[in-house]
Amino acid sequence: MKRIFSGVQPTGNLHLGNYLGAIRNWVHLQDEFEDCLFCVVDLHAITVWQEPKDLVANTREVAAAMIAAGIDPKRNVIFNQSQVSAHAELAWIFNCVARLGWLDRMTQFKEKAGKDKERASVGLYAYPNLMAADILAYKATHVPVGEDQKQHLELVRDIAQKFNHDYGQEFFPQVEPLIFGTATRVMSLKDGSSKMSKSDSSDNSRINMTDDIDGIARKIKKAKTDPEPLPSEAQGLDGRPEAANLVGIYAALADTDVEAVLGEFGGQGFGAFKPALADLAVSKLSPVQDEMRRLMDDVAHVDNVLHAGAERANDLAASILEEVQDLVGFLRP
Ligand code: TYM
Fold this sequence. Notes:
The protein is mainly alpha-helical and 333 residues long. It contains 13 helices and five strands. Helix 1 links the parallel strand 1 (4-8) and strand 2. The structure holds ligand 1. Ligand 1 binds next to strand 1, helix 1 and helix 7.
């Protein structure tokens, strides 16, 4: 059986990278896979401080973005993680399966904890174990994500393998990461060597899903570039990270590839390319943004989707968790 699981943190500033690298791909996958769960991972969000009021609003915003992007809440399960206790319960078991050495290697922890890792939360350190629980609580087989999640998914495979080995049964599947498209790693508009991120202190570094038309156009106009015209072939983008990023974004938004974009714009400068990119971004993003705004005004509908999703997710996870408890040796009534 094939099953998709993926998630987004409700930490605010949902951006173009989240949309192109993840959410938009999920829209395509719902036609290929019958069984998809898309989760707003609020338990992950609190590994760094979240204002409670903001967390509630951001949870609704991520759910609204999923629905607005075209994920059908009837065919798929959309829910927030904290409402399905199996995630936290299985995560504890995985805390006891994963090894400290494995978590020590996680680059995302090092990036997020920064220099002062003594002050990082224990949750931030154990974050990938909770990710493993998210996926394996449903025995999901395929996980569509952006490039930055690759190392975490390798750890999920290690956890599944060790659990299966320790408890002597091929119980959990080996999950397959699905990392595809031209926007698997959208970079900052201000620095082509760092990822577009929710936590970048410069708002100009990213296009937020809540930015208005003028904001999108202004940020693209201000994006860092180099003085050369665009090359005619992809090889010519080597060593030009900012140019490569903007061309990649264009290709993803236009549903085409980098070669086709360079076929059209090769030889032209950014004076011509940036306005074309801004127009394309606005035309592709505004319908999603309009729908997001409409949904954010209809909080009851979004809450209903999340509530119904949590019920379905609970049903799916409960029997798997019981089997895990039996394997581990927990006495059940
Ligand atoms: P999060 O909330 O950071 O990002 C959500 C999704 O967006 C992708 N993404 C990007 N893709 C391309 N370019 C970027 N600049 C960019 N930034 C983010 C991420 O790869 C991700 O797919 N740990 C996860 C959430 C999570 C999860 C899971 C994912 C929790 N449990 C289980 C899959 C399965 C995260 O922090 O995503």
